[in-house]
Every structure is written in structure tokens, then in C-alpha cells.
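pipeline: protein-struct stage 2 | run 1193 | cysteine--tRNA ligase
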Amino acid sequence: MAAAARRAAGLVPLLLSSPSGARTPLRRALSLIPPPRSYRLLSHPARPFSTSPFSASASSSNGAAAGRTRELQLYNTKSRKKEHFRPRAPDGEVGMYVCGVTPYDDSHIGHARAYVAFDVLYRYLRYLDYEVRYVRNFTDIDDKIIARANQLGEDPFSLSKRFSDDFLSDMANLQCLPPSVEPRVSDHIDQIINMIKQILDNSCAYVVGGDVYFSVDNFPGYGELSGRKLDDNRAGERVAVDERKRNPADFALWKAAKDGEPWWDSPWGPGRPGWHIECSAMSAHYLGHSFDIHGGGEDLIFPHHENEIAQSRAACCDSSINYWIHNGFVNVNSQKMSKSLGNFITIRKVIEMYHPLALRMFLLGTHYRSPINYTIEQLNVASDRLYYTYQTLRDCEESCQQQQKNSGDSLPANTLNYIQKLHDEFVTSMSDDLHTSVALAAISEPLKVMNDLLHTRKGKKQEKRLESLSALEDKIRVVLSVLGLLPSSYHEALQQLRDKALRRASITEEHVLQKIEERTAARKAKQYEKSDEIRKELAAVGIALMDGPEGTTWRPSLPLSEEEGVLAPHGMAASALQPERHLLLLAGGGGRHRSLLRMPPPRAPLPHRRRHWPRAVRVFSGDGGGGGGFASAVEKRSVPGAVGEDQGARVEEELEGVAAGALELRWPPWQGLADRYKLIGATSLAFVICNMDKVNLSVAIIPMSHQYGWNSSTAGLVQSSFFWGYALSQLPGGWLAKSFGGRKVLEIGVVTWSLATAIIPVAAGFMPGLVLSRILVGIGEGVSPSAATDLIARSIPLQERSRAVAVVFGGLSFGSVLGLLFAPPIIQNLGWESVFYIFGLLGIIWCLGFESLKEQQLGDNEGLLSYFYFADLEQSSTGSDGLVSSAVSSESSDLSLEDLRNSLKDVPWGAFFKSKAVWAMIYAHFCGSWGHYTCLSWLPTFFSEELNLNLTEAAWVSVLPPLGSMVITSIAAPFADNLISNGVDTTKVRKICQTIAFVSPATFMMLSSVDLGLPPWEIVAFLTSGLALSSFALSGLYCTHQDISREYASILLGITNTVGAVPGIVGVALTGYLLDSTHSWSISLFAPSIFFYLTGTAVWLAFASSEPQDFSKSGPES
């Protein structure tokens, strides 16, 4: 019946205008049958995993093993979250409709991205044993087709058919399975007219002079898919807005005929369908008014799919689609690739130079919802990886064919483990919203194992070697088949990859073989320099020479420039753009990306010249430093004699300079600053580096998760491990700062976290090692707040304290900004490992600079620092001066072990916990940290997955809250200090600031979590405003420790920070767990933060106090 219906052809009256303008009728037979295909699908029959991954695969009629688990989560654009896939008819067909192309030009990579993504979904649904009815249309009559036909002087239908056939050829080259039905608009005019009639009958459309417009005012749910308010919407048409519309957002269902355009008769006069009605009519015709999946590119969400929902429900109130799925853009120079923008790169141009499956692998290397930036480098990487994969599988196939294997025997345990692991990683990644990049990464280890079995001495001796090879190859074939990457022949695919590489290099294989002969002769003649030059020449154009026992062969590889060739011995070879012949494909270029899949450099490393770096040289005038010549300030510090001569006058000179505001030019610029300002500046810089090392993982966790296959819970565990060390080090850090002085403790902390950061790439593949390294980072950073608090409490008067705290702790926000700004480009260009090496090195450099500053203060300027301490100590009897009335920090470092024990015993722990003010600080710190740490760790992922921003965009948006915090901090600190200077009660000032810090983010998080249909950038603006205003806490909670006790400020901060680190451990991991369980960012991220912000405000207003408290005396509860 269905086949007969598809074969039925209707005769539709089609009228074309004659050149003179008179319309003449023309009847044309329009078939519903998709055009015949002349291509052969380039794939093996699928051999999917069986229920038991250790047994031989048993294929059913559709290529899927019986009894397979059907767990699948898909991101639904309409609900804005991942949902378990539950088809309308569990035992029937899955209906899937994907919007097809408008064939007026060659298809570009953006089209390939969309249809490869939905081809993978189609394949995976079939792999899960679903029967799928896949419909993909052709919009073969449209304004753009008509305009192009007029431009070329061609009939619109012949033009659209020509480009439709080319599109089908492109899809075949990319190994996209043919859909069940490929309807064309011109074949379905009757269905379209009938649907328009239904919409008019339901009073959701109106006729204006032969045009029919949909009335959005009569459809209250308009905008629910895109989240756009009706007031924000425009017509969403491909032409200018018609002034006859009742509402500018109304869109055309039927367009009246114009001269020179094809048209059909209708109840409203001659005309043709509008853009949007076509898909509604065709999807309803083949799948019914309600079906399972509707897909397309992200750019179709509005207006096309929004309009489809409106008109389908207006025609049939029961119309419903369960899952709306959209793929991300392909970008060129960070701009969406499209025909209308003129920056598109056609599929045909790419596959002239690259194998079609290399393009497919490139597209599958990024999650389908994330934008992907087109670069030649990434295509080179994909092509290289494809060659390695096929070569391994071909070698395996040939080895198994040449030797007899015993099929009845069981496999070795390690082989079974590899197969089980591959199965688990493949199914887990694909069932989690089609993470194809993780599925591709899953085959890396089995391929390595196969290479070991094929080529290493140890592997060749392994028991049941051939059986293991065959089983591993069988399972990898399944993965490649589902991903659409399995060729009809490995040998043919390898030859095609070699041919494409030669074409890119603009050379022939005969030329390569001639070069190999020349190189062999040069090596025999011991002309090694010439031999290396030949190898470098070929490597520069992507031809790698491989020396082996049977001679030298060649294979395609990543092109290497001469500079990269020099670095090759160090394992730093990377891809490079080649000359102008590649510009044909790139149309203006694109940003460089480092691949996650790297191939080893050629076997024979290039010779490289040892580089001699100049050593630091000091220039002295005269012999023995005794006299005479001019010496700069730096030189004087290097010469003992020079330092000794003016050491006694330095303090007096610098104090005079400060007092008189000396106008002479100084270098370095901070030379004339008081030492307390230098200390504050250096401490702030340490906090900048501190947060750079904290947030780098928030960005790097995305490529790390893709590479290692981590889910949200595992990523949450990795990120929360930092806070284990952070919590453990708070109290010890406070006590150490009190005992040894904040300066020394800070320096040790920076060294610890910097070295721990630098070893993260080494430990990343071993989860316990990675967790331990992050714990060490947490320990190093955990002692720093207490150390900084000790420095501030000892050296900064009350009237300057808010600004000092703002400068020091504001470094955290600036560090977040720098980290989030620089981490993405570093990761994209150098790999995620490099961000940890570079950021770790910054801390070591800071330590060297801080050490020299410290030596200068203890030597040249020792008297200056003491002057500030003791001048204030002489007035410290009342404590109103704001400085520490205890031993000087520098003296603390000379404490004996017995002194340390006594110091620890002397801490009035009991008095701390009898104070209501301390408990208010503890709870407020906990509440503020919950919102801060969970947002710091998860906002980049939220922006990437929920708002569909790519890695760079997500990081840029994540920069906005700390950037806003810097602005707010510069306002809040003077605001608080001025109030205190003008006599406002300190407690009242701290309560005002902390209330702003808590209520603001709670309010904006509420607005962001409630489904108000807000566009992404309004949500970003709300979160930025709320989190920025939370920095008022630097003039509230974070000053209260010093306010109530200068002597024990560092220990009090250690107490509150210990509790405040708990959200980093619990909150970050809990957010990941809730996200996996609920798939709701509102429940997982925002709701807990709102609760703690509001309860923290209540507790703070009730019990907080900044009145100085003498904890060393036992007194009543305060």
C-alpha cells in the first residue's frame, strides 16, 4: 500500500510566465519517489555488539543484536535539557524528520555537519534495534532558487534538481545513509493547500490580496521553542516585511504569484507556498501530526521551527513533537558558515583535497551541539588519524587472512577486558546525547593494543594473538559502522588517502619514490645532511618517510614547517598551513586548534643545533668594586660596597620621598612606595596567580572530559578534589601565619600550588594521581588567605583596611579574568596540558620576585618596615590605630619548637566558638562559598552545554562575572571606608555590604532559573550582575575577621575558610551528581545557592558584629 502510494504521481497544473508576461499553462508529472541513486554505499554490513561483548556478534535483520539495552539521552531544545528518549510507539517505528536543503548552489560544510550528525543519530537508533522512518525534504521552490535561476537563465526546477542530485552525491561520499523518504515541496502542493485551509478554518490565518499570513497573535504559545518573546520577534521571512501584516511577526503561508515565477492554482488565487508551511505539511503527510524527532541546524530554531510548531498546532491541535534536536554551526573566523554570508566552503572543494571520510571524522570530532571552527589543520589531523586507523585495521585483516586462527577457543582475559571497556565507553558516550568525539577516542587504546600485537616482539608472542586481533577488529568495525566511518575496503581507502595527500602536496608518487632513492643513496654515501634535507622537504608538504628493515616507504602525515621539524625530536611537532594552494578551501582562514589525537613524529629525527642562551651578566666599574664609575640602582644592589655605603641613609631617604611626594623619575616605578603597599601589591599578584591556577581546570575540564570520557559526576569529583586540600589547610594555615608570619607562609603556599599545577598533565591519566595533585593545589592555595589576612592585620590601619582587602582579594577576580581569557586560546593552540605548565611557571617566577623583594626589605629597607611597625606600636595601647599590638611578623620566624607548642596551646579555641559573631561569620562564609565555588566550577559548562556556546565563547562569558566583580570592588571598598571614616558604625557598614553581596546574586539567580523564555545573553547579563555584586562581601564578611580581632584574624579566617571550603567539596560534586540525575541546571546549580544566600543574609543581619573582642580573656558569650 505504502509503496503503491509512493509510486502514485499527481498531475499538478503549473503555470509559468512567458517572456511577454502572459501566463501559459504547463502540466508536469511530479513523482513522490526519491530520485534513483547511482552510488554504492561505502560501508561493510554492520556487525554490532552482542548482548555479551565477549561472544561472537549475532546480527538480526536490521543489523542489531536482540535484547540490547535502549538507553539514550537526547538534548531537547524545547525543554533545554537532556531527556531520556522514549518513542511514542515503543514497539513501532521512530518517526524522524530533518529539514533538508534549499538546492540553489553546491552544498557546504555546514550542510555536511547537520546531515552527518543526524545520520549518526539514525544509525545509532537502528543499532539500538529501533525501526526508524527518516524523512528529509528538499525545498525545491523558494525565493533563493528563483533568484539563482534568473541569474543563470535556467528553469528553477531543472536548477533545483541539478543541485539536489549533487547534494545526494555529496551525502553518498560522506557515507550518509539514504533517508526512508526524501520528499520535494513541488510534489506536495495539495497537502500544503489542505493544511493552509485547516489553519484558516481555525481562525489562525488571514488572506490579504492573494497572500495568506499566519496570525501569531492568535497562537498564544508562539516563542516557546526559541525562548523569544513575541515583542522581540520579526517576520522571520527571507524577504522584507510586508506592511499589510497585522503583526510584523506574522509569516507567509501562501505567496501570490509574481511575473516570471512558477505558481500553482489555489483557493486564494495563483501562487506558491511560503517557506515554513512546507515542512509542516510534508512531515504530517509521512509521519502524522505527532511524531518523535524533528531536527535541523541551530539557525532553524527561529524562525523556521518556531513557525512550524505554530502552524502545525493551528492545523491540528493534537500536533506534538517529542524531541527538537539542533546541531551547532560550522564557523569560519568565528562567524557562522553560510551561503548568504558568502563565507561557505563547499563539500566538493574539500573532498578534492581530502578524503570524504576525513571530513566526516573532522565533523564527528566535536559534539554535534557545539560550534566547530573549520581549519585546514584540523582536517589534516583527522586525515592523519583516519590513515592510522585504517592502516592498523588493514594490517590486522591481512595478518588474520595469512594465518589460521582457532575460532572455537576463548579469548585471553586482557583482550576481553579491552573489548568490554570499548563496549562500555562506546555505549555510554553515544547514549549520552551522541558524544561522538568520546566514542572516537574509545578506539585509541584498542588500536594501540592491535599495533603491539602486530609489530612488537612481545605482542607477537602473546597467546591467542590472532584470535585477539580478530575480536578487537570486529568490535572496532562496529564503532566505525555506527559512526559511518567504515570503508568498503581498507586497502582502497588507504590508497585514496595517499592520493589526496599527493594532491595537497602538488607532487606525484613517482616524485616521492625518486626522492626516496636519492635519500637512500645519500645515506649510503654518508651524506646525512642531504638525507635530512630530503626528508625535511617531503615532511614540509605532509609526506613522512618511514625507514624499516625492508627499506623506506612513505605515508601521509601532518605537514611540518622547518621550525616544527627542529622541534620534532622533542615531540612537539604540530600541523601547519601550507602555501596558497590551500587558501582555495579556507576562504580567509581560521583560528588554529591543537588536536587531541596526535601522531608520532617521523622515526628519524632531524638534527638540531644546540642553542646557547646568554647568561646574566653584571657590569662593574673599576677593579674590585672599589670605585669610581657610574653604577645603576640594579648594579648597586649587586655590589656589596655600593650597598654598604648608602644602606644607613636608605630609610631616611625613602621616608622623605614619601612625605614630600618626590617628583623625580624613579625606576622601577614602585621604588618610592611604602613597604606596606609593596607587600599588598605583591600579595594581590599572588592571588591573581592563585585563581588562574584554580579556574584553569574549569576550562580544561571540557577537553579533558572528552579525552578521558568523564561524565558530569567524574568531572565534579575532579574539580571538587581541590577543595579537599583547601579545607584541610585552612586552620593549619592560620596558625602557621600567626606563628611564622604571613609572608613566609604565603611564599610556601605559592610554591606548593604552582608545582602541583605543573604536574597535573603528567597525572591526568591516573585518577588518584590527578586527585592528589589537585589536593596539593588546594593545600597551597588554602594557606594563602590566612597568610594575606595576617599581613593586612599587622600592617594596614583600619581606615585603609577595606581597600587593602579589596586589592588583595580582588586579585582573585582579576586572576579569574586572566585565567578564563588565556586558558581557551592556550588550550586550543597548544593543548590542554600546556595551560597547567604555563600557569604553574608563573607562580615560580612570582616566588623568585617575591624573594628578592623580601631580601630588600630585610636588608636595604629593614629599618623602613620596622619604622611603620614600631611607630604605630607606640600608639597601640588603645587599639584604635588599627595596627597589630603584638610581636612583629619578622620576629615570629625565630620561634623555637617549644614556643610553637605554647603558641598553639595559647589559641583561645573555646572563646571563638562561644561568640555569636564568629558563628555568623562561619555560616556566612559557608553560604557565600557555596554560590561562588559552584558557579566558578560549573558556569563554563553551563554556558557551553545549556546556552550552546563553544569553548572560547563560554570562557569569554565566564570572564564577565569576575570582571564585573573588579568593577564593583573598586566601588564597594571606598564606599565602606568612607562610611567608616564619616562615623558610621562599622558593624552597620559590614551588614549593609554583606546583605548586598547575598541578596543580589540570589535575586538574579531566581530570574535566571525561572523559565521566562529569556534569550541566552539576558541570562548571562543576570548572572554577571548578581555574581559581580557578591564582591561586596570583600567589604563585609572578609573585613570582619580583622575588625573583631587583629591578633587572631588569620586563625579566624582559617576557621571560617575551613567551613567555607566544604561547599567546594560537597557543592561542586553534588552539582555534578544532581545534573546527572535531574538534567536541570535550575535544580542542580541555582536552587541550592539561592537557599544559602537568603538564609546567610538572615543569620548575618541577626548575629554579625564588628566590635573588637578580646578572645584571650574568658568572658561572656558575645
